[in-house]
Amino acid sequence: MDVISGAKRMKTGILLIVETPAGKEEVTFGFEELVKMEINALHLLQFPQKYFCDPRARVIRRRHGNRPGQSPVEFPTYS
């Protein structure tokens, strides 16, 4: 799965800019495809960096977890 670096709304779906090992690749997914994969199109447009894509298999998956170095819980510090 490759990182999605950008997304743009098209008339019939969403155009994704995917960073593959071979370079950047543009892939268009129709709204029906996104619904079948249970992907929220609006969320994908707003936060494409939270998803992975395999352009050859035409699959999108949501990233889970926190960004590297980010704790899931912030604990208060006491002096």
Can I get a quick summary?
The protein is an alpha+beta fold and 79 residues long. The chain is 15% helix and 41% strand.
Number of H- or I-type helical stretches: 2
Query: Mean pLDDT, as a whole number?
Result: 87
Coarse structural class: alpha+beta
Which value, in Å, is the CA radius of gyration?
15 Å
Number of domains: 1
Distance between the termini: 44 Å
Strand order of the largest sheet: 3-2-1-4-5
Unreliable stretches? none
* Element pattern in H and E: EEEHHEE
Number of strands: 5
Report the portion of residues in β strands.
35-45%
Largest sheet: 5 strands, antiparallel
SSE blueprint and pairings:
Elements: E1 2-9, E2 13-20, E3 23-30, H1 31-36, H2 41-46, E4 51-54, E5 59-62
Keywords:
79 residues; alpha+beta; five-stranded antiparallel sheet; 2 helices; 15% helix
Q: In words, what does this structure look like?
A:
The termini are far apart. A 5-stranded antiparallel beta sheet has the order 3-2-1-4-5. It has helices at residues 31-36, 41-46; strands at residues 2-9, 13-20, 23-30, 51-54, 59-62. With 79 residues, the chain is α+β, with helices and mostly antiparallel strands. It contains 2 helices and 5 strands. The protein has one domain (2-62).
